[in-house]
Amino acid sequence: MIANQIVQQCDPTSHWWGLEWNPAFFDFDSMSAEEEKKCWLEFQTAQYAIMDVLSSKFATHEKQIITDHDPLALTEKVIRQYSEMWDSNLTFFPAKACYTPTMWMTTWLPFGYLCLHAISLKYDDTGVTDAISKYSSFVSATKFN
Questions:
Q1: Residue 3 falls within a domain, yes or no?
Q2: Greater confidence, 4 or 103?
Q3: N or C terminus of the chain: which is more exposed, having fewer CB within 10 Å?
């Protein structure tokens, strides 16, 4: 899941941030609370792992971007910026008690992906060391129905 999602562009105006979730594995409507919690923990672990790598490799040069993508600060920012739009326009989330579209979007906030994409915009990833581009091309080429 993470390998497929990491190359996707996050869109705060789309359901689930525009990320693809394989419906065969992630049927949130039918998941038990325990299954949903396990999935959320895996997602959060991946986001924090991405942030850890980015912090260790880019902290001296991209401190502001990393700080801006701190999950708590970013959650507050996106709530201020998008909450009204989410709650009025995003309607097809799983029917779980006490969840609004804003709750879904902030619970599943892809802060690691967003930080990675923000940093990657500043760097030209071409030439001999274009590992990210090569991986993205590989993932795109392996998609089939």
A1: no
A2: 103
A3: C
Q: Does the reported pTM lie above 0.70?
A: yes
Predicted local distance difference test score (pLDDT) of residue 6: 84
Name the residue with tokens 């970013």. Answer: 74
Q: Measured in whole angstroms, how far is the alpha carbon of residue 56 from the centre of its chain?
A: 20
**Which residues, other chains included, contact 34 with Cβ-Cβ below 8 Å and sequence gap of 6+?**
none
Residue 1 lies in a domain: no
Could you tell me which residues come within 8 angstroms of residue 9 by beta carbon, excluding any fewer than 6 positions away?
A: 18, 117
Q: Does the CA dihedral 93-95-96-98 come out positive or negative?
A: positive
Q: What is the pLDDT of residue 78?
A: 96
Q: What's the CA dihedral at 48, 51, 56, 59 to 10 degrees?
A: -140
Domain carrying residue 121: 32-141
CA angle 80, 84, 88 (to 5 degrees): 160
